[in-house]
């Protein structure tokens, strides 16, 4: 299949951009014989990348984000005749600590501070908030020196930043609660209302304000249609996956199963 026909299979701009970048890296691997590492991708874009990678017969790949179950990972693409392991995926880890701000700073605060330095989101993997209120970040090795020398604040709080090993990472144990609900349709506002326990009149303003993401992408259309596997996040309230549409009630409402990350 030619490049343009393959890219035409992707509906969203970010999916096509990701697929095109993967195709470029595959071509580099085939031309040079050297492994290539991609950007950190969220699960939605990981699926787009792997749709392309699974087609190629000349390369293999593995994905790794620093620890088992990492949400954001990098793909390492290498010639099919070779082998690779997770330690071959280029990653670095840092820990940022703010004295006296243990209960104040959130994931959003640390991410905002890093992006405020001018780094692209694709250079940063998962951010783990520890029990002490520090943050552990998995990053691309090429940005490590900059973070160690230039990152000094999160908001009004001064921080100390040090490099750590992947063995020092302390990811939280993720638990999931299942929610069974009925909705009139698979509109974003309807499903989000059921998943987060809020009325649609409260969800709609949050969507318009850009506080809601669908599959890790900002969306401001309350009527956006969802499908099984889609993930909704609401700032400050976590994340909900539309796990399944299980049936239809006698009144014509859709019966759904949601999984809420706690």
Summarize, please.
This protein is α+β, with helices and mostly antiparallel strands and 262 residues long.
How would you portray this structure in words?
With 262 residues, the protein is α+β, with helices and mostly antiparallel strands. The chain folds into three domains: 3-88, 2-Layer Sandwich (Ribosomal Protein S8, Chain: A, domain 1), CATH 3.30.1370; 92-168, Alpha-Beta Plaits; 176-261, Roll (Structural Genomics Hypothetical 15.5 Kd Protein In mrcA-pckA Intergenic Region, Chain A). It is 27% helix and 29% strand. A six-stranded antiparallel sheet has the order 10-15-14-13-11-12. Strands 5-6-4-9 form a four-stranded antiparallel sheet, with helices on one face. Strands 1-3-2 form a three-stranded antiparallel sheet. α2 crosses α3 and α6 crosses α7. The model has no long low-confidence stretch (mean pLDDT 94).
């Amino acid at each position: 299949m030619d490049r343009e026909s393959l890219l035409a299979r992707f509906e969203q701009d970010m999916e096509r951009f990701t697929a095109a970048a993967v195709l470029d890296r595959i071509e580099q691997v085939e031309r040079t014989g050297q492994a290539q590492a991609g950007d950190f991708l969220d699960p939605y874009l990981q699926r787009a990348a792997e749709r392309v990678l699974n087609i190629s017969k000349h390369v293999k790949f593995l994905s790794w984000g620093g620890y088992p179950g990492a949400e954001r990972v990098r793909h390492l693409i290498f010639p099919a005749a070779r082998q690779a392991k997770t330690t071959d995926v280029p990653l670095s880890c840092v820990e940022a600590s703010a004295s006296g701000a243990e209960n104040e700073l959130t994931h959003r605060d640390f991410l905002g501070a890093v992006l405020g330095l001018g780094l692209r989101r694709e250079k940063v993997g998962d951010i783990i908030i520890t029990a002490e209120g520090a943050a552990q970040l998995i990053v691309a090795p090429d940005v490590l020196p900059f973070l160690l020398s230039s990152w000094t604040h999160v908001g009004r709080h001064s921080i100390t930043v040090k490099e750590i090993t992947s063995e020092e990472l302390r990811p939280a144990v993720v638990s999931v609660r299942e929610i069974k609900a009925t909705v009139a349709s698979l509109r974003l506002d309807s499903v989000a209302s059921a998943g987060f326990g809020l009325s649609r009149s409260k969800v709609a303003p949050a969507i318009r304000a850009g506080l809601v993401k669908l599959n890790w992408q900002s969306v401001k259309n309350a009527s956006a249609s969802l499908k099984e596997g889609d993930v909704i996040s609401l700032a400050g309230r976590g994340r909900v996956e539309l796990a399944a549409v299980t049936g239809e009630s006698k009144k014509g409402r859709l019966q759904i199963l949601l999984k809420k990350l706690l």
